[in-house]
Each structure stands twice: as C-alpha cells, then as structure tokens.
Amino acid sequence: MSPTATIGLTGDLLVGGGAYRGTHGEIAAVDPRTGRELQPSYGLGGPEDVRRAAELAEAAFDTYRETTPAVRAGFLTAIADGLDALGDELIARVTAETGIPAARVTGELARTTNQLRLFADVVRDGGWLGARIDPALPERTPLPRPDIRRRLVPVGPVAVFSASNFPLAFSVAGGDTASALAAGAPVIVKAHSSHPGTSELVGRVIQRAVADHGLPEGVFSLLFGTGREVGIALVTDPRIKAVGFTGSRSGGLALVAAAQARPEPIPVYAEMSSVNPVIVLPAALRGRGAEIGRALVASMTVGQGQLCTSPGLVFAVDGPGVAEFVAAAAEALRAVPAAPMLSAGIQQAFAEGVERLRSATGVEIAAAGEAGDGIAAPGQAHLFRTTNAELRDNPALQEEVFGASSLIVTVNSADELRDTVAGLEGQLTLTLHADDADLEVARALLPLLERKAGRIVVNGWPTGVEVGHAMVHGGPFPATSDSRTTSVGTAAIERFLRPVAYQNLPAGLLPAGLDDGR
Amino acid sequence: MSPTATIGLTGDLLVGGGAYRGTHGEIAAVDPRTGRELQPSYGLGGPEDVRRAAELAEAAFDTYRETTPAVRAGFLTAIADGLDALGDELIARVTAETGIPAARVTGELARTTNQLRLFADVVRDGGWLGARIDPALPERTPLPRPDIRRRLVPVGPVAVFSASNFPLAFSVAGGDTASALAAGAPVIVKAHSSHPGTSELVGRVIQRAVADHGLPEGVFSLLFGTGREVGIALVTDPRIKAVGFTGSRSGGLALVAAAQARPEPIPVYAEMSSVNPVIVLPAALRGRGAEIGRALVASMTVGQGQLCTSPGLVFAVDGPGVAEFVAAAAEALRAVPAAPMLSAGIQQAFAEGVERLRSATGVEIAAAGEAGDGIAAPGQAHLFRTTNAELRDNPALQEEVFGASSLIVTVNSADELRDTVAGLEGQLTLTLHADDADLEVARALLPLLERKAGRIVVNGWPTGVEVGHAMVHGGPFPATSDSRTTSVGTAAIERFLRPVAYQNLPAGLLPAGLDDGR
Asked: Any idea where the Aldehyde dehydrogenase domain is (chains A, B) (predicted)?
C-alpha cells in the first residue's frame, strides 16, 4: 500500500480555500530509491489557475496585512503545529518522494517548524515594522517641521518557487513562505514537481490554518505545473509584487528577466548557485591536513552533496600537509556509500557534471565513492584534483556540479591565492581553515572574502545553515540575484517590505504601530 | 566680470586627487535669466576617464570602508563646513547657472550641509552597521550552534547622477553622495551639464576634504559628460556596484537596463517621475475649497514647479465647494509671475507638455500665469481642468509635465475616486485634504494610497521634503526603480549596504563593530 493512502492525498491544486484538479497534464512523483511511481498523480495548473490564485491573493491582501501581530503569529504557529502533528506520515512521504533518509527528514521538519515559530516571534516583537517617528517641530525656523512617521508595509502578494533539495525547509512552508506570511504578504507557491505529495500535505496544513484563523482564503494557494508556463505566468501577473526562488541559475535568471520585463518590474530573490570555496592555509594544512581532509568529505557528502552550501571547490596552498590532506580525503571518500539522489533528473545532471570534470584537461580523479548498484538514481561521490594554473585556463571548472563532487585546487602561494579568490564569482559562503600562524594571511584575505560571499566560515564547514537573527544565506551575483538580502534567518522578512511615510496624519487615520496610544 | 573669476574655476574633471581637462568636447553653462554663456567652459570626459576614476575608487574601497566612524563623520562634516565657507560665492554661481533665486539657494545650501551633518551623526551612531550576534550554543542538541555575527558592509564604489533641479541637495554633495559616503562607499559623480560650475565648486570642496582627512584619493571623483556615453560607461564598469540617479523616466530606465545587462547586474536607485496626486474630499471642499485652491497654487509654483514632488494632478469630488476651489486657484494662478526655468531645454519640454494638455480633448485651461516677456527661458504657470471620464479615456493625461502645470480632475463620487486612484501609476507622494466628515472615506482610501506612494500627506502639500529619520522619498514604479528604499533621509544609507555573516571567527579576525571588546 502506498504510504499516502491513509492521509487522503487528492492530486488537486489548492487555490484559496478550494481544491480542484488541474487540467494541463499530470505528473506523478517517483521514488528515487526504486524508480517506481507514487500515487496519486497531480493535475497541473495553467494560466487561468494562476489568475484565479492571484485574484484571491489580491483580494486577501488588505485584510491580511493589517491582521494584528497576535493573529499573524498564531497563524504561523498553527502551521508549525499542523506539520508537527502530521509527523511520521509527512516524513514517510518525503522519504518516498526524495530518497532523503527519515532521520534527516525529521531534522528538516524540526527546522521548518522552528523557523515558522521563529517568524511568529519576529511578528510579535514588531521590530520588522521599522517604525520611525520624527515629531512635529511647529516652532522651527525658517519653516516648521511636520509630523512624519514611517513604517514598513508588505509589498503585496508574493510568488514562491519551491526547491527540490529541501522538500520542507525551502518548499511550501519553507523560509520564503514563512517570511512572506510574517511580513503580511499572501503567498502563492509553485510546488516542485519532484515532491508533489509532500507539497499537498503541507499545503493542506496551511489551507486549514488559514480557515481556522478566519483569514481571507487568498492568503495561500498552491499550484502544480511543469516547464515554465505556470512560473512565468505567476511572475508576470500584475498582482504579484515579489518572488522568492531557490534553484538553478538558468531557472532563476529566467524569472529575473521576466520580472524585469513587466510593465511594473518587481524584485526577484533568487538563490541560484554557489560552489562555496574552502581555502586551507599553510599552517592549518601542516598541523591538521589529514583531519581537514576527512572533514571535507563529511561536509561534501551531507545530503549526497545536494545542498546549496556544499563545498565544491577547495584551495590548498602547496607545501607540507597537502599530500596528507588529499590522501585522507581520498581515503574517506572511497568509503562513502552511494545513496539515491533526489530525482533521476538531478542524478543525470550530476553524472554529466562529473564526466565534464573527469574529462577536463589537467584534472585528475583523487577518489570515487561506492557506485551504488541496485539504486535507481545513485549519486556516486567524486573528488577531483587540479592546479591553480589549470583553473585559471578553464574557468568552467568553477561551475557548480550539484551533488557530492568537489575539486581540490593546489595553489603555489598565498599571493597567488589572493588573485584566484579575486577572480571567483559571487558565492553564498567562503570558508577559511587557518591556524594561529595563518592569521596574518587570513586577515589580509578577509576584505576580499567579504566582497565575494554572504557568509564567511572559519575552521568549520559551510553546510549547516543556522536559522537565526544573524544568518546571511545570500551573496553577490550569481550566488543570488540580490546580494542585499538573505533567504534564511529572521532578516529574510525584509525582502517583502517597503517603507511608507505618513505626514501630518490625524490620530484617527494613523495606522497600527505608529499611533501614539498603542 | 563673471562671478566665477574670483574662485578659480578651471573646467577640469576631478579624478581622484587630480584635475585635468576632458577631451571629449566641451560645454558651458548658460544663465537661464539672460541666455548668456558663463565661463569657463568644461572639457567633457570619456570612457578612459570613467575607467581611471573607477580604478581609483576600487583602490580606495577597502581602506575607506574600514575608516572609523569618527574619521568618516569628520570627513562628512568637513564637506559641510567647506560648502558653508564658500557661502555667497557658491550661491551666486548656482543662481547664475540655474536662475534659482538666491534666497532659495540659501535654503538649499543649508539643507545640503544639514544633510551631510545628519549623515555624520548616523555614522557615529552605528545603527547603520546592522550588527546582530547569535552567540554559540555549544551544548545545544542535536547539534551545537556556532557563533554567528552579522554586519552590513558597503556594496562597493557607487555612481551618482546629479539632478538638474536641486544643484546642491541632489547633486555633487547631495543625498546620494552623502548616504553613499556615509555607508563607506567611494563615489563617482556624473555632474549635471546645466550647472557645471556649481559642480566643480562642490567637487573641489569634497576633493580637499578627502586630502585633509588622509583618505585615499579615489574616494571621490567628478566627471562631466553629455549624452549617455559617460553615464553608460559608469554604470557598466565592473567596479561600480550601485547607482543613484534623480532625473527623467527615460534616463532612469536606460541606466536600469544597462545595469541589468551587466555580467554582474547591480542595483540602480532611480528616482524618476511622479505627478503627486492630491485628493480633495467633499467636506474639505465644502468647508475650505477656496483656501485649498490658493494653497494648491502656492505648492505647484514653488521652484517654478520644477520639483519631484510638485502636485501635477488634483482630484476633487464634484459637489459644493468645487466651483470656489477652482475659481480661487485660477485667480491665484493668474497672479503668478513668470520666472526663468532651470534651462532652455527644460523650458522647451515644459512648453511642449503644456501644449499637449492644452490641445487634449476634454481639457480646458482654468488659468495661466504671467507670460514672462524679457526672460530667456520663462516658465508660465498653467492650471488645467478636466473630468474623470476624460482621464480614463486618455491615460497620457497622467504623465508628468515638469514645471508649474497642474490638472484638476473632477470626480463624480468617492467610489469613482477609488477606481481612479487604483488605476494610477506609482507615485512619490499622495495627498489627501480631508475634514472630520471625510475621515471615513479617507480611512477606506488609505490602504490604496499606501500601495501607490512612498509618502502620504494629509491636509498639507507634497512639496517640501524633510531630511529626517522617518522620511520616505521613494515609491512604487515608475516613481522610482526600487520601492524598497528612500533617496532622502537617513534610511537612504541602506541602499549602499549588504549583509555579511561571520561564523566562528576567532577574536583576531572579527571586524570592527562585531568584536566583543569594542
């Protein structure tokens, strides 16, 4: 029996409070462990479904954005509670659709519900409102100053595109949705086609929370669709005022282009691609090269390397310890068991990326993990090695290979390292391994690292993104389409807000948060 | 004798600490009161000058951005002091180049230097740093939390395009420059060609302040150029990371397109066009129609209507008081003396805009001001009148006519008003005139106004933009290219900053503002 049978999945689009089957073709999830299709199939939406969801979102906006902090926080908490209540049924469906082991899904579910509750706290705290008051100065010369008060208001309905690799934390009730709902923006999610059942389960929890809290139905809709038809229709709908996206560079850039070509361009927050370079400095190599090598493999194989922050490029300054570093990494990697990747499509793209590196001039394989015979979509980990000179001649070696693949680059000197880092594209993260004797070199590199990445890690690993107040999951283009923001952590709410000033409003007109009384 | 002779204007480009004549043609300012050319002529820059300025800015960036708050605040204050010290010589040159009366220029100079000093306070205060610290939780289960700290860092060198209408407050040392320098970003200004002497005077003050404070010379450069060659070269230079612009919609959109087409797209903060609609509700009309009419004329003719916030569109709900409102406005307008506009080009565009309204179907002239015989570039104020039905049929009537022109639109009912406001483009400001009996209608309109404008004014006028903490001089497209920001007030600094997170940095590497000790 399919694990979904007990929880009544229907394969419907969830548009406002309703549910109905899309008529633009259908898809079914595939269990990547076995290659077998999962029930039910999902009817896909089209432009008319986007329009309907957008109309409802627009109609909901003015009511939803003025809900009290208590109501909105209660709503977010109810979504978290609903997901926790699904528990094992949800976890089983995620595992069936993505091959992610139940233990990891359990962690991701906790992260997702903690994130929703954290945004509930943010809403209650009220700092997100950005309230500023410049009181009137009627006696000022030469001219009196009027009373001016400012707050941030939500931009309007937001479109969210789910990611394949975090079916909970970056999907239907993930960070983009949580931060947009916290900001007071209705959300229309385009589900990722590789985990539609998970999406429906989560979507129904949100839909129920909307109803239970007496909110207008258009606060949330969930659409299924393949290709770019539904996505482009969403981004170009005039009622949509911002977009959150996590996925490929080509997908992100297509949405950015569509958003810019609108009569009224809108912001797109696309988190696209990053190889998360790791730099191992000489003293660290000398002192603990082998240890760093083993830790690299542990980081690059988390989630089969299918993380935005997976370390895909490692620079080691040539000298004592490099051989031990590479040998230990290679040894550790050879013992890595293959596991199913998220989908056959991702597995194929990974295999092509590995083949590109394998056949590149001057690149050698340091090690490969177990092959994974008998798994439908196995991800075989790969570790490659090259020199800085080769990397300079072939910038394509910098391109992300989504999966457990990493390229170790030996660099001749710290000076050469500096030039190489200066030539890198923008990244989500940059990591330094540095011992005390490396600190001077590290200090000199730091301003450059700040210009290239949204997060700098020292003596740790980029995988594992904390959901807190100080987190920046962002970075210069092409890591994201907007380096001024983060898609993880409480500051993510700022993406969906804009400031409005109110000049000389009588008390009866002043909006909540700016009136003297409350 | 030319007023410039005593203060040694040279007509040079100011590139870093140097000054030399551009070789791509030349321009001279023209006194719009007389049509006479002013000395000296200015040699125009080209792509090689942009490259040189950008190289210097890039070289200056890492040093400048880590200057202490005291140094940076002292630098901003020194610019303000230097401008104040120029005093009458500066004011005379501004008046000669723009026709703006000395009394107004005096006010604009005070606003400009106050703005620089306000940003010095902002820098000292440190809130702009956006510091957030999530301390390590080594005992947390299942995984310990690392130490994560965040701060905002400047995006990199910034290009600023001066405006014609505020030769001080929105020009070389205006709000864009002040906020970018406060953020720690080097600035390259493209001067506006209609006030090059003013630009050189201000530029030399900044150049001297850079030297006096021991800052790298590339912190500031000033370029002259016509057409779009220098502008596009600036926006597409890979070292430039953000753009501030105040000017026309076509000019702003061209810069946005160029910035988006870069290999690494960058943000453009373009403040472009707005007709700043004013809505007069029934009770206000009934009670004080004539008074509002006279006040409208006072607002629309400030600075000959050459303000971004000039009220160009007025909606009046038909009924008691409308006739008095229009009659009083017309009477006041007929008495408005003509004065020189900023330049012959602006005067010609104004005349064309007036002609477009005059010849539009269903639009009648309510009144015209004095013609201004004997002035080289006279701006003759115009008040037009039409109905909501005509406006609906001809959306071009909403387009900005830069200068003292305003169109009164009578609307049949508050419901009709709502639909009309919903159809407006994004605006810098929206203004309501409302008496007590109007408050219910006003309250119902407010959410719509918030979606259409960056600032909402009640029973006042949009002209007069306070430089404070709560000001929002921004608004939805096409008022600006980025509704999430303001170009006036202390929040303008946020445009030139982006967040960076630091994970587990040892004390010796933590940047200023995030270390525990300081």
From this structure: 25-474
Q: Are residues A390 and A243 in the same domain?
A: no
Q: What is the pLDDT of residue B330?
A: 98
For tokens 């290659």, what's the residue? A35
Shared-domain flag, residues B485 and B453: no
Residues A426 and A492 in one domain: no
Taking CA B285 as the corner, what is the angle to CA B284 and CA B287, rounded to the nearest 5 degrees?
65
3-state DSSP: chain B helix, strand, coil percent, rounded to 5? Answer: 45, 20, 40
Q: State the ipTM, two decimals.
A: 0.97
Tokens of A343: 């989908």
Query: Are the C-beta atoms of residues A152 and A109 closer than 8 Å to each other?
Result: no
CA angle, residues A69, A70, A75, in degrees to nearest 5 = 95
* Per-residue pLDDT, B504: 97
Q: What pLDDT score does B517 carry?
A: 58
Domain match, B127 and B160 both: yes
Residue range(s) defining the domain that contains residue A369: 278-458
Token code pair at residue B249: 């919609």
Owner of token pair 């229009």? B326
CA-to-CA distance for B19 and A469, rounded, in angstroms? 47
A491 in contact with chain B, both atoms CB, cutoff 8 A: yes
Return the SS3 of B434: coil
CATH number of the domain encompassing residue B424: 3.40.309.10
Q: Which residues of A285-295 are buried (b: 16+ CB within 10 A; e: fewer)?
A: bbbbbbebbeb
Helices B102-125 and B69-86: angle between axes, nearest 10 degrees: 170
Count of structural domains, chain B? 2
* CATH number of the CATH domain containing A227: 3.40.605.10
* B364 in Cβ contact with B353 (< 8 Å): no
- Residue A518 pLDDT > 90, yes or no? no
B40's CB contacts (< 8 A; 6+ apart) are B4, B9, B10, B11, B28, B197
Please indicate whether, in this complex, the C-beta atoms of A455 and B500 are within 8 angstroms of each other.
Answer: yes
Evaluate whether residue A438 is within a structural domain. Answer: yes
Q: CB under 8 Å to A81, separation ≥6 — which residues?
A: A113
pLDDT tens, position by position, A424-433: 999 999 999 9
Please report the sign of the dihedral spanned by the C-alpha atoms of residue A366, residue A369, residue A370, residue A371. negative
Query: A351 and A244 in one domain?
Result: no
Question: Exposed (0-12), middle (13-18) or buried (19+): which is B68, by Cβ within 10 Å?
Answer: exposed
Q: A335 and A451 share a domain?
A: yes
Name all contacts of A207-215 with Cβ < 8 Å and 24+ positions apart: A207/A14, A207/A17, A207/A19, A208/A82, A209/A75, A209/A78, A209/A79, A209/A82, A210/A17, A210/A75, A211/A17, A212/A78, A213/A71, A213/A74, A213/A75, A213/A78, A215/A60, A215/A63, A215/A64, A215/A67, A215/A71, A215/A75
Structure tokens at B442: 């006003």
Residues in B 136-155 with any Cβ partner in A closer than 8 A: 142-143, 145-146, 148-150, 153, 155
Share the mean pLDDT of chain A: 95
Model pLDDT, residue A376? 86
User: Does residue B251 fall inside a structural domain?
Assistant: yes
A466 domain residue, yes or no? no
Domain shared by A264 and A286, yes or no: no
3-state DSSP of A416-439: HHHHHHHCCCCEEEEEEECCHHHH
- Do residues A302 and A108 touch, judged by C-beta distance below 8 A? no
With beta carbons under 8 A apart, name residues in chain A contacting B265.
256, 477, 481
* Residue pLDDT, tens place only, A105-120: 999 999 999 999 999 9
Q: Which residue of B454, B457, B500 is in closest CB contact with A456?
A: B500
Distance from CA of B181 to the nearest CA of A (A): 18
Burial level of A7, CB count in 10 A (0-12/13-18/19+)?
A: middle
Rounded CA-CA distance A288/B382 in Å is 79
- Which residues in chain B come in under a pLDDT of 70? 1-7, 517-518
